[in-house]
Amino acid sequence: MEAKSAGEKTVKEGPDFQLANSLPVPAQMNSAAGSSTEPWVYSRLPGARKDTVANSDTHLKGPRFGLKRQVEKILSRADITIGDNRPWDITVTDERFYGRVLLRGSLGLGESYVDGWWDCLSLDQFFSRVLSANLDRNLLWNWSSALRHLRVAGFNQQTRSRAERAVRQHYDLGNELYQKMLDRRMVYSCARWEHAANLEEAQKGKLDFVCRKLDLRPGITLLDIGCGWGSLAKFAARVYGAKVCGITLSRQQMQLAQEVCKGLPVQIFLRDYRDAHGTFDRVASLGMFEHVGDKNYVRFFETVCRCLRPGGLFFLSTIGSNDSFHVTDPWIDKYIFPNSYLPSAALITRAMEGLFLLQDWENWAPDYDRTIMAWFENFQRQWGDLEPRYGARFYRMWKYYLMGAAASFRARRNHVWQILMVRQQALC
Predict the structure, then answer these.
(1) Would strands 243-248 and 221-225 be described as parallel, antiparallel, or unpaired?
(2) 228-257 confidence digits (pLDDT tens)
(3) CB 16 within 8 A of CB 83
(4) Number of neighbours of residue 41 by Cβ within 10 angstroms
(5) How many separate domains does the chain show?
(6) Among the three residues 126, 154, 182, which one is the final residue of a domain in this structure?
């Protein structure tokens, strides 16, 4: 089977993922996957266990016509049709698609796409219409969605052990993937496109914006929480003369960050934000707060406050939600960002109250849409080099993730906030 979308290479549906021996995977993850060598994230993809998928869908073999009419009615509310040729319309190649979506909602929609049961010329346009029409909230709700709400409301989904597992699933997929997809500095957060002609210029502009907001100067000490592959640490040290301490939970990120920052006044540690210590003139956190969780927001801000001198500046860049209480999309939670949670403005301000004074707050949602589309262009262009390691099913999974993310900002369901705060003089 082949899957093709506008402007991209033909991708052949090949064997399941071929990362069997390339990444360190904890024993408990291997056990859950049903194999001692198969990476956990790939075994969770629909189709990785053909017999399991086939058996799980036997109960969906009912009258197809009625199911199709229900799905058509739902999609029509977003002006999406089945079998038409507009970029945002979909083509169904397996009749089981209808029952799977009706039974499993958003999770079934994503899993059936990775399985190749449906396709779309322009996934980002499809998602933009789905989200703008609130189909995911009002019409793709099922019993499992209710259970997820109860779980999120009652339990801390971002404990230390859960955080470590989530990092391994996403950020330790292999540095090569991110080197091919991101800019040369490997900035995995929203770029600033003002005065920029391409992704490289936009990400340089973003880093410069952050450093200027923090008023960095030679000798200033900076703590970078969730430092990724060292992009901000290297830029702040090389361009502004700052002394930087970066922390991350990803071993692969730490190793590459230490390499690229070699020779600069930069130290990179494998450390949970809860264990951050020392006193710094400035603190920054770019694209990490989404993994903290609402049960831990107060502790996060108390940690930052404890590590920041009185009157020091804290720059927080985070994706944000319109709603204070919600659950992460189940497909994203299962396959892309386990246990992630997007904060609302109210949750942020409530958690920082008494610790920080708000100095500046910007929303770059349109910039993130453009950034993610640029990432996908890189990913697609470099896919020939990545395919032998990752396989065709990963391509469909990653494309689905990126196109849905871009559309969430386009539809203004998600935002990306650049927030500057000042630590109050009181002791934390």
Answers:
(1) parallel
(2) 999 999 999 999 999 999 999 999 999 999
(3) no
(4) 25
(5) 2
(6) 154
